């Protein structure tokens, strides 16, 4: 009888696993590149409960040892499910092991301690560079078959780690946050401690430089904010159903992982969270990002592959990624590539997503010195509203600021720059296809700013409609196709070109609703060429009168 019941349970489990796997099959039916199907991790059916290891979910008792003992016990059994019941489970860092599912039941909150002494300094990667940071609250390295599932919450207590800028918060929040200690870099920029300020003073885009000894690193430990979830060189990873919030730095950071699924997760950070990215998928292969929401303080869904020489030396691209049915609320970018893309990015499909109030919708960013190639990016069926800057942005002069913070810098004309020769440090963006996009209320319709020595190449815009205050600008680009591009502006020209070669206008309507060559303003001193063969406008002269 017992064997019969056990067989029935196993059969039911296998049937559910098969159904869950089949739910992803439709994603591959119209895929514009070749990609292996991503399978869910196979976790043994053994189950233990955190409270079996003297854990107390009162929000005060530290449960670091209980989590470690429970994970070790499961590992000795070959893996299984660690069940975290309802309660607030305060803990120090948790290190995952292979073949284990961390399962949070409804109303289960894992709250990571704000005591920075619990987080040792470790060798890792951040901002695309090899460096040291504090140990991540939740981490795993060189693992296989791991998952974090359920309906609970993982909270990184990030406000104890992060600096704060006054202009990003209300006066009452500013007074409360800065009244408990810390130091001021400026009157409007608060940092948690003097050690944090020292680290900031020697850092290049959040990564300290010129430190050699352990003592030197320890002296700025407060500055070494970790990503909340760090998964390095792991295979067969599933994050499903859980809320991930309030991270010290980036929220979720899979690095050099393979076969990853994020499904039905919520990723949350305050809008003022410094470096509060949602997902940073770096140098990973075969990933599904599905049915999830991101509401964060920096980029929402971001694809990376290392920075400058460190990224090129690693040489691992981020490739074969499907992003489908996701929503991004506040954040610097909805879907983002870069700026750390030195190992390359290729074969990405983004579809059926909406961006609501992000600084940028589709954001591609890099700079001289990166190197790397971004190619074969396919984006379709995107809706956006209330975009602070541009719905579509290519910026190869990225300097570390958000698009909103960089508005004045971006609008500068770089008249006297020295143009270097193309070499391994020159980034390349090419073969990018964007179609079926609608955007209501943006500052500027679109902005392409490539490098004169290596222009962005073969960017295809099809069936895109934008309402913006200002028209679009395309600079230092070639082989651009604008097919049924509709731009409605409140002032000025609908499209300005600077040093663009071979731009094609397709399906230009006689009534001027679709952007055509007669809507173009050529920037002073620029050389532009239009492929006349692709223009379909019987009465294109009428377009000149249509500016809105």
Q: How would you describe this structure to a colleague?
A:
Strand 1, helix 2 and strand 2 form a beta-alpha-beta unit. The N and C termini lie far apart (76 Å). Helix content is 12%, strand content 42%. The strands form 4 sheets. It has a 33-stranded parallel sheet that branches. A 3-stranded antiparallel sheet has the order 12-14-13. Strands 7-8 form a two-stranded antiparallel ribbon. It has 548 residues and is mainly beta.
What labels would you give this structure?
single chain, 548 residues, mainly beta
Quickly describe the structure.
The protein contains seven helices and 40 strands. The protein is mainly beta.
List the helices and strands and how they pair.
Elements: H1 2-22, E1 47-49, H2 64-76, E2 80-84, E3 87-91, E4 94-95, E5 100-104, E6 108-112, E7 121-126, E8 129-134, E9 138-141, E10 144-150, E11 153-155, E12 164-165, H3 171-178, E13 183-186, E14 189-191, H4 194-201, E15 203-204, E16 207-208, H5 214-219, E17 229-232, E18 235-240, E19 243-245, E20 252-255, E21 258-263, E22 266-268, E23 279-282, E24 285-290, E25 293-295, E26 299-304, H6 308-314, E27 318-324, E28 327-328, E29 333-337, E30 345-356, E31 360-365, E32 373-387, E33 392-395, H7 407-410, E34 428-444, E35 447-449, E36 456-470, E37 472-489, E38 495-506, E39 520-522, E40 530-531
Parallel strand pairs: 1-2, 2-5, 3-6, 4-9, 5-10, 6-11, 9-17, 10-18, 11-19, 17-20, 18-21, 19-22, 20-23, 21-24, 22-25, 23-26, 24-27, 25-28, 26-29, 27-30, 28-30, 29-31, 30-32, 31-33, 32-34, 33-35, 34-36, 35-37, 36-37, 37-38, 38-39, 38-40
Antiparallel strand pairs: 7-8, 12-14, 13-14, 15-16
């Amino acid at each position: 009888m017992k064997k019969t019941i056990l067989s029935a349970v196993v059969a039911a489990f296998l049937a559910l696993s098969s159904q869950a796997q089949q739910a992803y099959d439709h994603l591959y039916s119209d895929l514009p590149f070749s990609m292996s199907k991503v399978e869910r991790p196979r976790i043994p059916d053994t189950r233990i409960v955190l409270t079996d290891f003297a854990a107390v979910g009162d929000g005060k008792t530290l449960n670091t040892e209980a989590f470690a003992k429970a994970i070790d016990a499961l590992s000795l059994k070959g893996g299984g499910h660690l069940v975290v019941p309802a309660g607030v489970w305060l803990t120090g860092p948790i290190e995952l092991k292979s073949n284990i599912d961390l399962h949070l039941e409804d109303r289960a909150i894992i709250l990571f301690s704000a005591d920075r002494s619990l987080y040792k300094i470790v060798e890792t990667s951040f901002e695309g560079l090899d460096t040291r940071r504090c140990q991540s609250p939740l981490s795993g390295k060189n693992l296989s078959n791991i998952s974090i599932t359920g309906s609970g919450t993982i909270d990184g207590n990030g406000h104890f780690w992060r600096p704060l800028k006054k202009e990003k918060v209300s006066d009452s929040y500013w007074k409360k946050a800065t009244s408990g200690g810390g130091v001021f870099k400026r009157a409007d920029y608060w940092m948690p401690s003097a050690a944090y300020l020292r680290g900031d003073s020697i850092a290049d885009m959040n990564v300290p430089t010129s430190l050699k000894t352990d003592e030197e690193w320890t002296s700025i430990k407060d500055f070494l904010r970790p990503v909340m979830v760090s998964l390095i060189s792991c295979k067969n990873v599933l994050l499903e159903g859980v809320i991930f919030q309030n991270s010290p730095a980036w929220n979720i950071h899979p690095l050099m992982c393979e076969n990853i699924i994020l499904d039905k997760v919520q990723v949350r950070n305050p809008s003022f969270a410094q470096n509060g990215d949602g997902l940073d998928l770096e140098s990973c292969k075969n990933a599904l990002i599905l049915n999830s929401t991101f509401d964060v303080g920096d980029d929402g869904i971001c694809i990376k592959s290392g920075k400058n020489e460190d990224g090129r030396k690693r040489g691992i691209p981020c490739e074969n990624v499907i992003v489908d049915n996701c929503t991004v609320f506040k954040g610097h970018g909805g879907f983002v590539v870069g700026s750390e893309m030195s190992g390359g990015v290729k074969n990405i499909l983004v579809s059926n997503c909406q961006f609501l109030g992000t600084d940028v919708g589709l954001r591609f960013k890099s700079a001289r010195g990166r190197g790397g190639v971004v190619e074969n990016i396919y984006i379709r069926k995107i809706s956006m509203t209330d975009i602070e800057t541009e719905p579509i942005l290519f910026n190869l002069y990225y300097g570390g600021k958000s698009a909103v913070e960089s508005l004045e810098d971006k609008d500068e004309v770089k008249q006297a720059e020295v143009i270097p020769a193309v070499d391994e440090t020159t980034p390349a963006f090419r073969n990018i296809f964007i179609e079926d996009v609608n955007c209501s209320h943006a500052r500027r319709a679109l902005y392409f700013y490539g490098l004169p020595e290596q222009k962005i190449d073969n960017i295809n815009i099809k069936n895109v409609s934008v309402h913006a205050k200002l028209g679009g600008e395309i600079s230092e680009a070639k082989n651009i196709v604008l097919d049924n591009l509709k731009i409605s502006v409140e002032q000025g020209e609908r499209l300005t070109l600077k040093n663009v070669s071979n731009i094609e206008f397709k399906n230009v309507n006689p009534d001027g609703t679709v952007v055509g060559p007669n809507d173009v303003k050529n920037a002073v001193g620029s050389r532009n060429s239009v492929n006349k063969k692709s223009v379909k406008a019987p009465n294109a002269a009428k377009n000149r009168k249509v500016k809105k």
